[in-house]
């Protein structure tokens, strides 16, 4: 969907539908905007309480040629005192998805409800752009519904803001596409092709032999049972001569649990276990397209985790590139093995900070549901900046502790560490495990296991892959020196 800005009166702009946001119980704000006959229709709708402006409430009115727009869609913003940036995104997403389902193609947005609130208007449009998504690649008869364009009827110069949210939304859609793609097509090699399709970046791919030579036994153990070979993908985008920021995305393209096999119910969703890698690809795509003045190294330790005669077994001991040994307690705690090698590998580039993003633990979903990313780290400033980005984007994070006592949970009798401390504290002990490899390097861990996939539509996030993390990290990059 394209987004444009035009300074023209709402009644004179021809389109399939004019979106008119309304605060709750503020119907009188509509009067005088349209012709007498249209106002009478709106007055009847409001007075009969068919529409009151409650948050995300919609009401479609046919104008019957009285004004240029064919229809007016009233969309409720709720109480003005309770308005938030995320509520604005939700209203934008609700309005657009409603009209999209009616096969509308060209929309316009009245800015009458946003007097001198430029950021509010942009948030509303961002929700619209994020909601306009579908994944129909595998349907024989696609009949894909989609909005062609939305025009903001305003005299303000919004070019910079629109370009930002459009690029960020497109990057989030890329991440959604990658995660929604089934694992027979979204293999480690497929992730390589996506990485190489990005502009203004350099890509290095370590194959199994190269990873073996470097000593990445922890990472390689994840892929031992799979026929699709692992690919350790390194993407560099440099548009500023500063130490790099490392972004590491867990990229297990399918996670069966390995020998520690997961239950069959719901296992088809485990194609989503590369959502962290998809987010990193989306971030680098957007950063390069916007020529952001940053230096990024993206690491995608891609692999499949499957059972087989050569698969890693509980009780095996593997060594990371840095020399630490790990006793494998559960082959279903494989993501942290791949991330451990990725962290130690990228530390050799002396990054200013490391951020890993991963669908790491089922315990994250138990603790936070689908509502927030679990955040842990060893650097307060890094975490504060991510919290600020969370407030800006609505991609919520919740800080979890990393008490020193958690180290006791992952002590092994025969190795330096074990990859699972059991059920108690499993969300935070997984984070503490990664901390052991980050060492003194500023590091932050984002567990997106509960937020990378949803089973029901939300106002600006269709069910399935969410693309979580892309907008969060892009917002963070704006303030990262």
Number of distinct helices: 14
Unreliable spans are none
Structural class comes to alpha/beta
The largest pleated sheet is described as: 9 strands, mixed
The CATH C-level class name of the largest domain: Alpha Beta
| Percentage of β-strand residues | 15-25%
Number of strands: 20
Distance, first to last CA: 32 Å
Tell me the count of domains. 2
User: In the CATH hierarchy, what is the architecture of the largest domain at level 2?
Assistant: 3-Layer(aba) Sandwich
State the fourth-level CATH superfamily of the largest domain.
Zn peptidases
Helical content (DSSP H or I, runs of 4+): 25-40%
Subunit organisation of the chains: single chain
- Rg estimate, integer Å: 24 Å
**CATH fold title of the largest domain:** Aminopeptidase
Global shape: elongated
Mean pLDDT: 95
Describe the structure.
The protein has helices spanning 36-47, 85-101, 118-131, 159-180, 188-197, 208-214, 217-222, 275-289, 335-347, 362-368, 380-393, 406-409, 426-438, 470-479; strands at residues 2-6, 17-23, 58-62, 71-78, 106-110, 149-153, 202-206, 231-238, 245-249, 251-255, 295-305, 317-319, 325-327, 353-358, 373-377, 397-399, 417-418, 443-447, 453-454, 464-465. By secondary structure, the protein is of the alpha/beta class. Strands 7, 8, 9, 10, 11, 14, 15, 16 and 18 form a 9-stranded mixed sheet that branches. α3 (118-131) links the parallel β5 and β6. α9 (335-347) packs parallel to α13.
């Amino acid at each position: 969907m394209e987004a444009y800005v035009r300074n023209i009166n709402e009644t004179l702009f021809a389109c399939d539908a004019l979106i008119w946001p309304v605060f709750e119980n503020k119907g009188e704000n509509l009067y005088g905007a349209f012709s007498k006959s249209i106002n009478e229709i709106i007055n009847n709708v409001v007075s009969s309480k068919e529409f009151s402006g409650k948050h995300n409430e919609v009401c479609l009115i046919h104008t019957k040629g009285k004004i240029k727009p064919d229809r007016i869609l009233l969309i409720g913003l709720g109480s003005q005192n309770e308005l938030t940036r995320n509520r604005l995104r939700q209203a934008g997403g609700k309005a657009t998805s409603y009209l999209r389902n009616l096969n509308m193609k060209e929309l316009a947005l009245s800015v009458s409800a946003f007097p001198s609130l430029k950021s509010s208007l942009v948030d509303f449009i961002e929700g619209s752009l994020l909601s306009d998504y579908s994944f129909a690649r595998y349907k024989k008869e696609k009949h894909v519904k989609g909005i062609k364009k939305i025009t903001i009827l305003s005299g303000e110069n919004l070019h910079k803001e629109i370009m930002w949210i459009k690029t960020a939304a497109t990057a989030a859609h890329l991440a959604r596409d990658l995660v929604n793609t089934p694992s027979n097509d979204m293999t480690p090699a497929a992730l390589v092709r996506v990485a190489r399709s990005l502009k203004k970046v350099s890509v290095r791919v370590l194959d199994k032999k190269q990873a073996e030579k470097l000593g990445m036994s922890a990472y390689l153990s994840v892929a031992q049972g799979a026929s699709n070979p692992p690919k350790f993908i390194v993407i560099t985008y440099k548009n500023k001569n500063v130490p790099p920021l490392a972004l590491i995305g867990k990229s297990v393209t399918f996670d069966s649990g390995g020998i520690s096999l997961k239950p069959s119910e719901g296992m088809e969703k485990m194609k989503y276990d590369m959502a962290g890698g998809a987010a990193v690809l989306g971030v680098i795509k957007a950063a390069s397209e916007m020529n952001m003045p940053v230096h990024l190294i993206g690491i995608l330790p891609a692999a499949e985790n499957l059972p087989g005669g050569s698969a890693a077994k509980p009780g095996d001991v593997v060594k990371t590139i840095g020399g630490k040994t790990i006793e494998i307690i559960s082959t279903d705690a494989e993501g942290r093995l791949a991330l451990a090698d990725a962290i130690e590998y990228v530390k050799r580039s002396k990054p200013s900070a490391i951020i890993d993003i991963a669908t790491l633990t089922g315990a994250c979903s138990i603790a936070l549901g689908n509502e927030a990313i679990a955040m842990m780290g060893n650097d307060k400033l890094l975490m504060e900046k991510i919290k600020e980005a969370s407030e800006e984007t609505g991609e919520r994070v919740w800080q979890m502790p990393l008490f020193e006592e958690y180290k006791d949970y992952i002590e092994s009798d025969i190795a330096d560490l074990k990859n699972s401390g059991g059920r108690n504290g499993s969300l935070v002990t997984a984070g503490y495990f990664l901390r052991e490899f980050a060492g003194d390097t500023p590091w932050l861990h984002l567990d997106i296991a509960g937020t990378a996939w949803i089973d029901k539509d939300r106002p600006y996030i269709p069910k399935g892959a969410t693309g979580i993390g892309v907008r969060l990290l892009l917002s963070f990059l704006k303030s990262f020196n």
